[in-house]
Amino acid sequence: MAEVASHEAAAALTSAINTGDVSWLLISTAMIFIMIPGLGLFYAGLAEQKNSMTMLHLCLLIFAAITIQWTLFGYSLSFSDTSSSWFMGNFEYAMLLNTIHTQNKLAPTVPNSMWALYQMMAACITPGLWIGATAGRMRLLPTLVFAVLWSTFVYDAVAYSVYGVNGWLHKMNVLDYAGGTLVHLTAGTTAFVMSCVVGKRLDYGRRDYENHNPAFVYLGTGLLWFGWMGFDGGCATSANERAVNAAFATNIAGAMGGLVWMALDMTVNKKKWSSIGFCTGAVAGLATMTAGSGHVQPGVGLLYGFSAGIACFFAVKGMHFIQVDDSLDVVAVHGVGGSLGLLLTGIFAQYTVTATGVTEGVTAGWIEGVWKQVPIQMLAIVAVIAWTTVVSFTLLVTIDRIPGLHLRCSKQDEVLGLDYAEVGEEAYPYIMVEKETEEDREMDEMERMGGDGETTVMGFSKNGRREL
């Protein structure tokens, strides 16, 4: 009898599954995965050369760690649809049990396991965003420990609150289509807390930091931009017009954000046609659009991108003014961008978009006369910032006091660079090409006459080894 019942349940599930939706979510999942090495390249290019390999490495390390956390209990805590809690899910889907032959209420046309795989990619990339705040000065082991704990107590809790069927913000009809609160606001807030707890770089304020490889930034931006259309488009959970709307709006906001930031760089900072300025603005536009991509008309993406380019650009200057050392501007791009996107969505969300593919709980923004929506959006922003701040600060301070998990690297390691000190591998293990001078020829002559056979130029010896 049990076997017959199992076959009947499987048959009922098969009849409800839409293979087109499954295909679209599989594609979107792969697109989001590409964002993870893309983020690594983006951060590696923005960082100093001595920390570039660390940025690349950390993105995949965090991906691996959160994949395990998500499998064990993360998905169940975030998206269990059988929990009666208003704040956190249960363990119904722990170890991904009961996910192959069931469907989640949030994605009724695909297997639960498909929804879990898709959402896992977002869970993995989000901690990768905040590592940029302390680039070059926070050790790898405590970073990974913090990432796992943070994902459990911050990411999973916010995910359930915003998207869980009984989540308290979900019940209030907060409009957050693809993660303005869950991804960008939590990452930006955490980046601010990390910057304060870990402290400034040793030479902060005494010199200008160079983005060591604009080509990496450019390539990383391209991969992020590509994946973002799957990130937002996939949240429709279906291959329908809403997925097209989200992907289109996302692309428009990224384009506008990049152009506006680059223009401000030229006029305010007196730079040329900066590729880094364009790329940073594009990411700001994409981040800002995340909350509203499936709630507003695609053309409104122009306003999102324009607003993001201005607000996030001047937020960078604001962070410098208050002397908070956010190394790669995570707070300005993701924290400010995520908040701005949530507010704009409360204004411009329309029923013609929000009602697509939805049968209940439909709401819209001020443009449709729903005057309570912006206050709801503001409440969500304040609540998520408060929870993320308290939990992140508590976790960081606690981890820092555990023997062997001190957050900050030593002064010597910071000067040397975490590539060499922590990873033990460098992004550019090449022999530097020297321009021969008269002094070089004299030194070569000395070597032939019995010297030690090794000279050093700019921290590298002729055999390519870094000199300490």
Write up what this structure looks like:
The chain is mostly helical and 468 residues long. It is 63% helix and 1% strand. The protein has helices at residues 2-16, 19-46, 52-79, 112-130, 140-163, 168-171, 180-198, 214-233, 241-267, 275-289, 301-321, 330-348, 351-354, 373-400, 411-416, 418-423, 438-448, and strands at 456-457, 460-461. A two-stranded antiparallel ribbon has the order 1-2. Helix 8 packs parallel to helix 10. The N and C termini lie far apart (72 Å).
Residues in β-strands, percent:
under 5%
**Total number of helices:** 17
Mean pLDDT: 89
Number of strands: 2
- Structure class: mainly alpha
The biggest sheet amounts to:
2 strands, antiparallel
Lateral strand order in the biggest sheet? 1-2
Per the principal axes of the C-alpha atoms, what is the gross shape? Answer: globular
